[in-house]
Amino acid sequence: MTRVLVVEDDPQLVRALVINLQARHYGVDAAPDGATALRLAAARQPDVVLLDLGLPDMDGVDIIKGLRGWSRVPILVLSARQASDEKVAALDAGADDYITKPFSMNELLARLRAAVRRTEDNTAAPETTLVETEDFSIDLLAKKAVRGGRDVRLTPTEWHLLEILVTNPGRLITQKHLLQEVWGVSQSNKTNYLRVYMAQLRRKLEKDPSHPHYLITEPGMGYRFEG
Ligand code: CA
């Protein structure tokens, strides 16, 4: 049974989440504040954490840092609309994904399944070597990209960027993370690098680069590869 830890101080939302999750045979623990959340996470070893960032006793980002000190459990952040700085801080602290309130239960369940599946994929097959889409394929081992039967030439920087995205399918990767990994810088004023290189990758890989299907921009936050 997949165990979910719900960290949320809104009792109505907790109730809705518990009912929906239990109906789908998840095991559910609920914590109304950060202190309880950290205690339950250690005691119950959940498979995934749903974390509201606005809690009465602690900043949600501190809870993520606390969990990441000893656990790689997937963390799906529940966050209020318009709080994109908060979401970015949560992702940079080690959250795996976020969903904006108000959300549909179906979307939440889909994100939850994806988060759990990623950890299962990771343990089953640590090395994904071939990423295939309808329009192109990426061989990570041979460092080769093919589109329409022809090799696509990528620069080392483009390759590095692409590799990070395609090895985290469906997952939002923050601008800060990409800048640090690829360019070794963390200044947010360097996001123009990212825009330029992402545009190049789209030109080389996407069928319609101005309406990308695979290399998706999350405005103000980062990028996501949808396989
Ligand atoms: Ca709250």
Automatic annotation (TrEMBL):
GO terms for cellular component: cytosol; protein-DNA complex. CDD domains: trans_reg_C. It holds the Pfam family Trans_reg_C. It comes from the Bacteria. The keyword DNA-binding applies. SMART domains: REC, Trans_reg_C. Residues 128-227 bind DNA. Keywords: Cytoplasm, DNA-binding, Phosphoprotein, Transcription, Transcription regulation, Two-component regulatory system. The modification 4-aspartylphosphate is found at D52. GO terms for biological process: positive regulation of DNA-templated transcription. One of its GO terms (molecular function) is identical protein binding. It is found in: Cytoplasm. InterPro entries: CheY-like_superfamily (IPR011006), OmpR/PhoB-type_DNA-bd (IPR001867), Sig_transdc_resp-reg_receiver (IPR001789), WalR-like (IPR039420), WH-like_DNA-bd_sf (IPR036388). SUPFAM superfamilies: CheY-like. Residues 128-227 form the OmpR/PhoB-type domain. Residues 3-116 form the Response regulatory domain. PANTHER family: KDP OPERON TRANSCRIPTIONAL REGULATORY PROTEIN KDPE, REGULATOR OF RPOS. Member of the two-component regulatory system KdpD/KdpE involved in the regulation of the kdp operon. Upon phosphorylation by KdpD, functions as a transcription regulator by direct binding to promoter regions of target genes to positively regulate their expression. This is Transcriptional regulatory protein KdpE. It comes from Streptomyces muensis. The lineage of its organism: Bacteria, Bacillati, Actinomycetota, Actinomycetes, Kitasatosporales.
